[in-house]
């Protein structure tokens, strides 16, 4: 018994645990696996612990479960929380200030607990108001200021309307008074514009005051100021106005409104638009105003960030109102979304409507109330509900001023946060004071909230060595805690011998341990392989073997426990199919099945009855004739002895008796009110049908009104007279028709003579009014009939219009809000096309619909392009219009035109004009019909053709959520522009009533399509909850073309929704086609409908009360494939015929395309078309039709791109073998022994592959006939050549492929072999390995914006092992020992394409550890981490916007902003004066930032090429590889001789190498320059120096787009060769060639790296790097002058450390020539030259004065593009360049000059004519080893443009001809003056291939290298070989980041 005790306890525990699943979807108490009593209680609310030592169930579980399992209720340990209201002062409505109730509440929460509390708020009708106006005072706002000065009286009236206790203040702002925001010339600092004040940042002009006269007089004294760039410094002003409470005058009990008026965008923290970006410290959020109200620290700190502004305004209860012009409206519209409550108003250009903007904004703010929970600890979440319990969305609390508003706060404590228990959080994250308040209030409800983490007293007293634990452990809270080496629940088990343990794992009658479904562990405990499927102490039970109902295991209402259904609470039955409750059987009177049946298994079984019954046995008249019609005959015979049953015997058969009454009941008290006409006496009788008051009476009661309503008898004599008059009229009409010459005219004349037809033909609406219920609307249009009376001859066109909300008066609040005329709205447009409608047009995806949609779009866009601001039409669809006369078979086109609201009249006029002409461009339309609508009105026309008396007007209903409960539309017939009819009934009114119900039931869409193969059509039924509670609705299917029990099984019943339930699904079983149906040729579309009816408990039906279900019978597609997998031909065969066969659905046409692959002499392709009935087609290839001799070869044919009704089969490829002699085909294998063809084994049969893991595939096959010795399995990655496959030799017909790549497609073939050799192969077997967790992301890169802001980016993991779905970034402050010193912040990025994150508000000078990991469908991968202190990094400014769509997080924001992601495309870009952001459109540019990753052997690196907002670039690159860290200046072309460490082939001993590669240079070689203070910059430079012996490194000369230099190359590893002495000597000589031998030793070289940085439109910073010099540098000289001549200005710098100079007062748009040279004791060195232009918009009246706010960039747009040199021979080269981007005039040609760089030769000049996009010139008679300087200058109609300069050297190491030696190299250098772009195109690699001067036998290889982490895949694209002695290799490598 002892050994079974552990098993028994484990079994009982497991059973008890599983039973708990029946009662809750998530039993977190049991799932927590709590190891102690305290941990159990802290798992969540409701958790209880049983300390009884004799208890064998789960100790930690829900209280009810523990008690049910036998634990004594007295011993169960539970925990409770508390709540108390500490201060509750009632609201005083006489007090004119905002108030809340209660004021202070204390709450404690168990983890997961939720509490609700009712809150009252009061806002006075005219409470205290503080209004502060903050206005932009830049010069462009001058007219705005003048208008505001004249509006003092209107402003006073406005504030008096809003409040009786108000104050008003005024402030002004411009921008920081620094370059480049402000013109820093002395004259401009005194007066930037005529009659203006000096520039300033912010000034508080008028402190908040209630003296309006004082305010107006002070405002009139103000004058405008000015600045340069367009984005203004308004954020500085807003922050100071918010935090300087006393200086501004904010009052604590008032509503604070801040009106921000500007026409420009905004600067924000580190926005990069100014040179101070990244240098100034971040804003400290404190007040810094001088006594005169001016902002003092505008130079000392940066602008505030957007999260900072949101936080500060919220903390100070300030509501911003942005009054902005159209130029920046969209920026502030998006900015508004970040504030809890804010408004944006559109100003006129002169702000003349600012008062109206403020009035509308105030009204909007008052109409909203957003409730916020401020200072909320991380452990809590808050929701706000209406008093009815419905969760309220943002800002929809309808609290009226002057009334007490009520809402409900729901506060919940989390159980876990990111899988961590909430009790483990720091104290500041699970307790604190939450301020609950409306966003417009200052007062708040203070809630002291804390998480209660209980502990158990029993844990403090334990029983050591307890007998219950067999003396081997301590008893703590009833549970044994075993000592070492003791196991089991009672510490009575140790590790036993394996045979003993195995026997303990076998149950009675079992042969295998654990039933073969698990592992036998210590103590005889079975651990099941799949615990979610197998259970029991011996894993003997299968959870999938319980009974099913409706296809669902245990009806999805219980759990499968021990192979029996354990039903959830409220359900019973073997499959949990029966509800215990009789709620589903309750009838409308609350009885059970109406007394006509019994409730069985939750459904009523009704007694037989002649009437149709509902599901609750109540008469269902909705599915028959209705209650009135069903009882009509019996009422008539019993009451009046008339009708069809007036015979007494028939009348007695009626199942009910009537009651005659004097007065009928009211309609609301009865089921139906009935009224019919008695045919016997022409009188009308009335009766009602209702339920009996006696619950025992089940039949309906009928009450009949005693008195009939009969027509007056005195009118009967008129009947003969009327008959006579009608005969007379007919005779008169006949005479007119017979004897008049013109029938039409006479007929009309005769009719006009009649009194009743005096007006001739009339048109008008048929009805006066329509009353619609919104819940029953199934369309957003109403077809309203219009009729025509009189003679129906001729055609009449009637124009109509409809107006929405005509019930609203002129003073209605909504009517007072005028729409923005510039607002872009949707215009629905309908036209009748001059073509018949076909069924194909109703299917949007059909080709007919697609082609017609394109034609309509092209022609309508051509017409509407004349409408200003109109965009292209969209959402075009086609339909028919019923009741359209003779045109109802024609196609109606519906489309949507986006256009400004103000264009409505123009659109209607243009549409009507083109429709009447019958043509819209090339589109034929039917005249007389059109509709143009907006969101509030519509106009159109309809046509009455001859003989047509009625047509429908398709009236839009404008149904919107914000509609009134009862709204009215008016449709008016305006006039008859074509025809003679007059308008009769002109108006029709349409009233739409919103019904307020507790719930609304609706299908999600009006139609669904399911395939028969689905088996079940799951129809979702949605419930919209208005007032929560229980409700019910009936559903039922009905046949259309689909038939019950033939196509589907009908369903009906009631759906019961409990509280909170919003959707349920009704399954409808679909039946398979019978054999007879499958043979029918004309198959009809099968459809049935499902209806909703009889909603109860206050519910109603919604938009889609019916849905149509289509059963799709898709024909099987044709399958086309090659007949054989291999084809064999002989070189003597005249043609190659390859058969293709087709199976399935052969009676339809089908096509497929084919192409050849890997053929040597041809590359063929074409279509293959199968006609109906064709089963086989041939592909015929004529080998003699192609050049070259026919030789043996193997190539492939592939089938691809089948038509939509076809597919490609298994043999989609075939191998064609062309041989000289016939032999068995063996692909990829070589037989070791010759054999006769007949002895080869056939291919194995039935091969199957299955992935068994991320890196494993299991492959099986059937052995072929014969006696195979073994098998060879060939496998390779899909897409790789089959020749590169790996081969696995196995002896049995199965194989395990291991060590594969995860989530990778593999292809396999299998062949058998014997003593003869390899047999035939199988066809390709595809298989894909499973996904695995991703690897770590690529190296982290930091773009340091400032000491507190960085942009973090990373590369995709090298091994994604699936599709990446998300990234997670964690950053933690750490100390020097890498220990955390603060809380970690975690940000999840759900968009895997956004591999960047901008982090703001980091702690200054604080080291952070950053970790990034990736996630796919398997889970999270490992972290990639890096540690960095931003303060130690050089800052680089970032242009605006930062980077499109990258998340931005605020590191110092509260928990409210944790994981709150703002995207920089929402932060917006300042337009710098233009209406379009200055962002590069280049796809490779990300906001002016090139982002490329280059990876090297042994590591990876990140390359950042940073550019500013101009087209120019500052280039810098960082690489990290195996050898250390490197920095390169540009992308280069490298000429490299093979040396040690070279990453190229080792067999190239004699071969020289020419390659495009990446330069790397040691970081220590970078001297003295950091990219600081750059607004816009251009870099040029030249570096030339000697290199020492590099050991394991190789070095090479580099050709760069900006300079030439030597660089290090990374070592390959231990296999690298040592450099030979001749190679080292050659490289040293190559280095020496680049030195200027003519320079005197000690004279400085040319200054390196000349950098121009624009500081403003007239200011420039020139920087350079210290040149190489053997003596000390004494100083520098900078010379500059206008390029077209003028005074040469000179600046001498005597301090060697000064390597930059700032130059002011330059002329905008003028090119300057700059020269820089260095001086030592030996004299001046050579000059570095540069030509630069600062482009800027200028004042038209003063071309030398830049326009304030205009953008400025560095450029040389009129210079030719970068020069590209191609060596043709030792003494000739080809020079090419691109056309200038913006030439000064039309290009006539170019002037090219060439001279030796160091003199000693003549200057040669060349004239090149033409203006093509790329021009080239061949220059001959050059000298080897001599550097030449080339200059190219464009010649235009306006003169000569600036020069582009380049330097080139053609070098031969021994001075001989280029083609005579195998070791060759060339060097070129270029100095590009002001390159306008980075040119990575290299012509040298390609022109040399056909160059006769290159050595024969040269091999050229182009390698396309796709690099991702450590996995590199190289694909050789091209190999060209020539069979002559010697060898030279030219290699071009391109690295792409995959």
Provide a descriptive summary of the structure in words.
The chain is mostly beta strands and 1938 residues long. The chain has 26 helices and 118 strands. The strands form 31 sheets. Strands 39, 41, 42, 43, 44, 45, 46, 47, 49 and 51 form a ten-stranded mixed beta sheet that branches. Strands 96-95-92-93-118-116-117 form a seven-stranded mixed beta sheet, covered by helices on one side. It is globular and about 140 Å long.
What are the main properties of this structure?
10-stranded mixed beta sheet; disordered N terminus; disordered C terminus; single chain; mainly beta; 7-stranded mixed beta sheet; globular; 118 strands; about 1950 residues
Strand content: 35-45%
Radius of gyration: 44 Å
Largest sheet: 10 strands, mixed
Which percent range fits the helix content? 10-25%
Integer average pLDDT: 75
Number of discrete helical segments: 26
- Write down how many β-strands occur, each being a DSSP E stretch of 2 or more residues: 118
Short description:
With 1938 residues, the chain is mainly beta. The protein is built from 26 helices and 118 strands. 39% of the residues are buried.
Give the SSE layout:
Elements: H1 4-19, H2 28-31, H3 37-41, E1 47-49, E2 60-62, H4 63-68, E3 83-87, E4 99-101, E5 104-109, E6 114-122, E7 129-136, H5 142-149, H6 152-162, E8 166-173, H7 186-190, E9 202-209, H8 212-220, H9 234-243, H10 245-248, E10 255-262, H11 306-315, E11 318-324, H12 329-336, E12 343-346, H13 354-367, E13 371-374, E14 380-385, E15 404-413, E16 416-417, E17 420-421, H14 427-430, E18 431-438, E19 445-451, E20 473-476, E21 479-482, H15 498-504, E22 518-521, E23 525-528, E24 534-535, E25 541-542, E26 548-549, E27 552-553, E28 558-561, E29 564-567, E30 571-572, E31 578-579, E32 597-600, E33 603-606, H16 627-640, H17 648-652, E34 658-661, E35 672-678, E36 683-690, E37 701-705, H18 718-739, H19 743-753, E38 762-765, E39 769-773, E40 781-789, E41 796-803, H20 813-816, E42 824-836, H21 847-864, E43 874-879, E44 890-900, H22 904-917, E45 919-920, E46 923-933, E47 937-944, E48 950-956, E49 966-978, E50 982-983, E51 987-993, E52 999-1003, E53 1007-1011, E54 1016-1025, E55 1031-1039, E56 1052-1057, E57 1063-1069, H23 1075-1079, ...
Parallel strand pairs: 5-19, 7-8, 7-10, 10-11, 11-12, 34-37, 38-50, 39-51, 52-59, 53-60, 61-68, 62-69, 82-85, 93-118, 116-118
Antiparallel strand pairs: 1-2, 3-5, 4-6, 6-15, 8-9, 13-18, 14-15, 16-17, 18-19, 20-21, 22-23, 24-25, 26-27, 28-29, 30-31, 32-33, 35-36, 36-37, 38-40, 40-48, 41-47, 41-49, 42-44, 42-46, 43-44, 45-46, 46-47, 49-51, 52-54, 54-57, 55-56, 55-58, 58-60, 61-63, 63-66, 64-65, 64-67, 67-69, 70-71, 71-74, ...
């Amino acid at each position: 018994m002892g050994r079974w005790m552990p098993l028994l306890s484990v079994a009982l525990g497991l059973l008890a645990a599983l039973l708990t699943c029946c009662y809750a979807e998530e039993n977190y108490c049991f799932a927590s696996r709590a190891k102690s009593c305290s941990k159990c209680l802290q798992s969540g609310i409701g958790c209880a612990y049983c300390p009884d030592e004799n208890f064998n169930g789960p100790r930690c579980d829900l209280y009810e479960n523990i008690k049910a399992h036998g634990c004594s209720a007295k011993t169960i340990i539970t925990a409770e929380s508390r709540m108390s209201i500490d201060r509750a002062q009632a609201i005083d409505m006489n007090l004119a200030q905002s108030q809340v109730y209660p004021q202070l509440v204390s709450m404690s929460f168990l983890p997961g607990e939720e509490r609700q509390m009712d809150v009252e708020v009061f806002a006075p009708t005219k409470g205290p108001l503080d209004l502060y106006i903050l206005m932009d005072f830049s010069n462009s706002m001058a007219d705005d200021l003048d208008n505001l000065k004249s509006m003092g009286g209107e402003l006073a009236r406005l504030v008096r309307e809003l409040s009786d206790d108000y104050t008003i203040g005024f402030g002004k702002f411009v921008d920081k008074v620094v370059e480049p925001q402000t013109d820093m010339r002395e004259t401009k600092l005194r007066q930037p514009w005529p009659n203006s004040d000096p520039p300033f940042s912010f000034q508080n002009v008028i402190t908040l005051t209630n003296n309006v006269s004082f305010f107006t007089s002070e405002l009139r004294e103000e004058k405008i100021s000015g600045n340069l760039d367009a984005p203004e410094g308004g954020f500085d002003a807003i922050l100071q106005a918010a935090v300087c409470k006393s200086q501004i005058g904010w009052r604590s009990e008032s509503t604070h409104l801040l009106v921000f008026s500007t026409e420009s965008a905004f600067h924000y923290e580190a926005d990069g638009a100014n040179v101070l970006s990244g240098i100034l410290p971040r804003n400290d959020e404190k007040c810094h105003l001088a006594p005169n109200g001016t902002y003092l620290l505008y130079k000392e700190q940066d602008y505030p960030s957007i999260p900072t502004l949101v936080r500060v305004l919220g903390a100070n209860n300030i509501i911003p109102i942005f009054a902005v012009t159209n130029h920046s409206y969209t920026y502030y519209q998006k900015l508004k979304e970040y504030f809890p409550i804010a408004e944006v108003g559109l100003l006129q250009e002169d702000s003349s409507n600012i008062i109206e903007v403020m009035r509308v904004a105030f009204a909007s703010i008052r109409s909203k109330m957003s409730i916020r929970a401020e200072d909320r600890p991380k452990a809590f979440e808050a929701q706000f509900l209406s008093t009815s319990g419905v969760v309220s969305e943002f800002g929809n609390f309808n609290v009226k001023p002057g009334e007490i508003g009520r809402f409900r706060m729901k506060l919940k404590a989390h159980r876990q946060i990111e899988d961590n228990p909430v009790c483990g959080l720091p104290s500041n994250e699970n307790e604190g004071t939450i301020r609950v308040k409306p966003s417009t209030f200052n007062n708040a409800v203070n809630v002291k909230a804390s998480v209660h983490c209980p502990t158990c007293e029993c844990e403090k007293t334990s029983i050591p060595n307890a007998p219950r634990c067999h003396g081997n452990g301590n008893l703590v809270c009833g549970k044994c805690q075993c000592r070492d080496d003791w196991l089991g629940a009672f510490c009575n088990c140790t590790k036993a011998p394996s045979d003993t343990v195995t026997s303990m794992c076998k149950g009675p009658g079992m042969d295998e341990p654990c039933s073969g479904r698990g592992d036998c562990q210590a103590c005889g405990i079975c651990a099941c392989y799949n615990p979610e499927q197998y259970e029991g102490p011996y894993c003997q039970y299968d959870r999938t073997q319980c009974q099913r109902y409706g296809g669902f295991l245990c009806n999805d209402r219980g759990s499968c426990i021990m192979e029996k259904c354990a039903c959830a609470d409220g359900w019973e039955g073997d499959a949990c199919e029966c509800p215990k409750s009789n709620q589903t059987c309750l009838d409308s009177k609350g009885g059970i099945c109406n007394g006509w049946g019994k409730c069985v298994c939750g459904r009523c079984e009704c007694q037989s009855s002649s009437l149709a019954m509902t599901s609750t046995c109540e008469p269902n008249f909705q599915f028959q004739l209705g209650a009135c019609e069903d009882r009509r005959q019996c009422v008539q015979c019993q009451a009046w002895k008339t009708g069809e049953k007036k015979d007494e015997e028939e009348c007695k058969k009626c199942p009910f008796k009537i009651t005659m009454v004097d007065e009928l009941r009211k309609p609301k008290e009865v089921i139906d009110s009935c009224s019919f006409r008695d045919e016997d006496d022409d009188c009308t009788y009335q009766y009602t049908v209702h339920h009996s008051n006696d619950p025992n009476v089940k039949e309906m009661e009928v009450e009949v009104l005693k008195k009939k309503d009969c027509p007056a008898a005195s009118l009967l004599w008129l009947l003969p007279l009327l008959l006579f008059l009608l005969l007379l009229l007919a005779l008169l009409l006949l005479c007119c028709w017979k004897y008049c010459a013109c029938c039409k005219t006479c007929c009309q004349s005769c009719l006009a003579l009649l009194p009743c037809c005096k007006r001739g033909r009339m048109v008008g609406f048929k009805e006066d009014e329509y009353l619609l219920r919104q819940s029953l609307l199934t369309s957003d249009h109403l077809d309203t009939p219009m009729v025509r009376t009189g003679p129906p001859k001729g055609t009449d066109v009637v124009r109509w219009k409809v107006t929405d909300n005509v019930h609203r008066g002129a003073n209605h609040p909504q009517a007072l809000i005028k729409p923005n005329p510039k607002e872009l709205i949707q215009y629905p447009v309908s036209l009748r096309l001059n073509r018949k409608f076909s069924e194909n047009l109703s299917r949007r995806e059909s080709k007919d619909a697609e082609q017609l949609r394109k034609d309509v779009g092209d022609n309508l866009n051509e017409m509407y392009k004349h409408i200003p601001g109109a965009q292209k039409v969209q959402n075009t669809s086609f339909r028919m219009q019923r009741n359209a006369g003779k045109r109802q078979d024609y196609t109606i086109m519906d489309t949507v035109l986006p256009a400004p609201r103000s264009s409505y009249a123009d659109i209607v006029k243009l549409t009507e004009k083109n429709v009447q002409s019958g043509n819209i461009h090339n589109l034929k339309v039917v005249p007389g019909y059109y509709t143009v609508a907006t969101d509030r009105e519509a106009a159109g026309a309809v046509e009455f053709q001859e003989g047509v008396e009625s047509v429908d007007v398709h009236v839009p209903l404008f149904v919107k959520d914000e509609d009134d409960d009862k709204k009215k539309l008016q449709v008016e017939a305006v006039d008859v522009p074509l025809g003679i009819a007059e308008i009769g009934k002109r108006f029709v009114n349409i009233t739409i009533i919103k019904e307020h119900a507790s719930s609304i039931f609706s299908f999600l869409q009006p139609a669904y399509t399911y395939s028969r193969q689905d088996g079940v059509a799951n129809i979702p039924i949605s419930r919209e909850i208005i007032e929560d509670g229980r409700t019910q609705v009936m559903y039922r299917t009905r046949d259309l073309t689909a038939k019950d029990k033939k196509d589907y099984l009908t369903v009906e019943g009631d759906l019961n929704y409990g509280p909170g339930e919003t959707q349920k699904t009704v399954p409808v079983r679909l039946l398979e086609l019978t054999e007879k149906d499958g043979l029918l040729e004309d198959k009809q579309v099968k459809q049935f409908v499902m209806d909703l009816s009889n909603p109860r408990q206050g519910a109603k039906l919604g938009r889609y009360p019916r849905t149509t279900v289509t059963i799709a019978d898709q024909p099987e597609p044709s399958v086309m494939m090659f007949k054989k997998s291999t084809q064999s031909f002989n070189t003597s065969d005249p043609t190659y015929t390859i058969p293709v066969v087709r199976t399935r659905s052969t009676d339809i046409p089908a096509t497929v395309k084919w192409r050849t692959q890997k053929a040597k002499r041809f590359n063929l392709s074409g279509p293959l078309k199968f006609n109906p009935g064709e089963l086989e087609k041939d592909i015929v290839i004529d080998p003699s039709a192609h050049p070259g001799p026919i030789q043996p070869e193997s190539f492939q044919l592939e089938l691809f791109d089948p038509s939509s009704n076809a597919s490609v089969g298994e043999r989609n490829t075939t191998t064609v073998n062309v041989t000289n002699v016939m032999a068995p085909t063996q692909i990829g294998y070589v037989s070791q022994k010759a054999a006769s063809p007949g002895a080869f084994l056939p291919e194995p049969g039935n091969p199957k592959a299955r992935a068994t893991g991320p890196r494993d595939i299991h492959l099986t096959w059937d052995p072929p006939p014969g006696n195979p010795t073994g098998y060879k399995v060939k496998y390779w990655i899909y897409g790789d050549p089959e020749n590169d496959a790996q081969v696995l030799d196995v002896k049995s017909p199965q194989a395990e492929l291991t060590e594969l790549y995860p989530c990778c497609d593999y292809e396999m073939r299998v062949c058998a072999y014997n003593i003869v050799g390899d047999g035939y192969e199988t066809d390709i077997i595809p298989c894909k390995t499973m996904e695995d967790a991703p690897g770590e992301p690529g190296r982290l890169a930091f773009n340091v914006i400032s000491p507190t802001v960085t942009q973090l980016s990373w590369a995709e993991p090298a091994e994604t092992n699936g599709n990446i779905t998300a990234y997670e970034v964690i950053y933690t402050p750490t100390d020097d020992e890498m220990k955390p010193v603060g809380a970690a912040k975690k940000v999840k990025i759900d968009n895997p394409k956004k591999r960047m994150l901008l982090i703001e508000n980091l702690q200054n000078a604080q080291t952070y550890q950053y970790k990034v990991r990736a996630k796919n469908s398997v889970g999270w991968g490992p972290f990639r981490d890096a540690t960095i202190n931003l303060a130690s990094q050089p800052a680089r400014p970032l242009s605006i916007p930062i980077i499109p769509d990258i998340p931005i997080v605020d590191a110092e924001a509260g928990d409210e902003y944790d994981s709150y992601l703002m995207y920089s495309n929402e932060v917006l870009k300042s337009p710098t004066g233009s209406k379009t952001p200055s962002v590069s459109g280049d796809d490779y540019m990300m906001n002016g930032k090139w982002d490329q990753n280059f990876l090297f052997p042994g590591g990876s690196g990140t390359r950042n090429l940073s550019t500013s907002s101009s087209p120019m670039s500052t280039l810098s690159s960082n690489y990290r590889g195996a050898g250390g860290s490197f920095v390169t200046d540009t992308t280069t072309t490298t000429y490299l001789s093979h040396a040690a460490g070279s990453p190229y082939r080792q067999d190239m001993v004699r071969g020289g190498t020419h390659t495009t590669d990446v330069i790397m240079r040691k970081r220590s070689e970078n001297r003295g320059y950091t990219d600081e203070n750059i607004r816009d910059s251009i870099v040029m430079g030249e570096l030339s120096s000697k290199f020492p012996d590099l050991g394991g490194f190789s070095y090479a000369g580099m050709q760069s787009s900006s300079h030439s230099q030597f660089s290090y190359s990374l070592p390959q590893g231990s296999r690298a060769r040592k450099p030979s002495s001749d190679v080292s000597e050659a490289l040293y000589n190559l280095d020496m060639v680049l030195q200027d031998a003519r320079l005197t030793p000690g004279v400085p070289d040319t200054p390196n790296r000349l950098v121009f940085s624009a500081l403003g439109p007239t200011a420039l910073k020139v920087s350079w790097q210290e040149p190489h010099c053997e003596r000390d540098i004494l100083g520098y000289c900078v010379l500059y002058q206008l390029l077209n001549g003028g005074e040469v200005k000179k600046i001498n710098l005597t301090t060697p450390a000064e390597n930059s100079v700032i130059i002011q007062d330059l002329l905008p748009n003028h090119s300057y020539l700059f020269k820089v040279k260095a001086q030592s004791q030996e004299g001046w060195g050579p000059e570095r030259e540069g030509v630069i232009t600062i482009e800027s918009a200028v004042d038209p009246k003063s071309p030398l004065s830049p326009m304030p706010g205009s953008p400025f960039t560095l450029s040389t747009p009129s210079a030719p593009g970068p020069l590209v040199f191609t060596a043709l021979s030792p003494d000739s080269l080809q020079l090419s360049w691109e056309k200038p981007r913006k030439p000064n005039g039309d290009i006539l040609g170019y002037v090219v000059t060439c001279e030796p760089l160091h003199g000693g030769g003549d200057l040669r000049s060349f004239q090149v004519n033409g203006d093509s996009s790329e021009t080239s010139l061949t220059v001959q008679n050059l000298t080897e080893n001599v550097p030449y300087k080339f200059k190219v200058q464009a010649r235009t109609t306006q003169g000569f443009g600036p020069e582009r300069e380049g330097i080139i050297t053609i070098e031969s190491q021994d001075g001989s001809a280029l083609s005579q030696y195998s070791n060759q190299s060339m060097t070129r250098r270029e100095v590009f003056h002001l390159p306008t772009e980075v040119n990575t195109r290299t012509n040298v690699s390609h022109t040399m291939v056909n160059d006769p001067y290159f050595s024969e036998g040269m091999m050229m290889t182009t390698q396309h290298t796709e690099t991702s982490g450590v996995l590199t895949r190289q694909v050789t694209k091209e190999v060209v070989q020539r069979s002559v002695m010697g060898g030279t290799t030219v290699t071009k490598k391109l690295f792409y980041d995959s």
